[in-house]
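Pilot study result, target chain (113 residues):
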Amino acid sequence: MPHCILEYAKPLEAQLNPTKLVQAVYEGAYSSGLFEGPDIKTRAIAYEEYLTGTNKTAFIHVTVKILSGRTDEQKQKLSSTVIKRLTALKLPDISITVEIVDMESSSYAKHLA
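Predicted structure:
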């Protein structure tokens, strides 16, 4: 845990390999100190069609799903460390957002085969 879902504007791929975006999100989650490396799951979805307001400004949005029970301070640290890693990529003219979402432990299920 956590599940880090990275959504981004596909045109960003002309400036940066998506693997670097995924790695930056992973490193941000890891550097928060809240999770062990092997527990962090990170994936990316590129969007060709999008609007940011009335413009087609590039964006990165990360949803980090974590099991409930973390403090607001821990969640803030997590979002800050992910943003810090993404802004370090120095992508111009971009909107970067991070959302921390609690998953209820009582309804979360996992199966490893």
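One observation from the pilot: Strands lie at 3-9, 41-47, 58-67, 94-103. A full batch analysis is planned for the follow-on phase.
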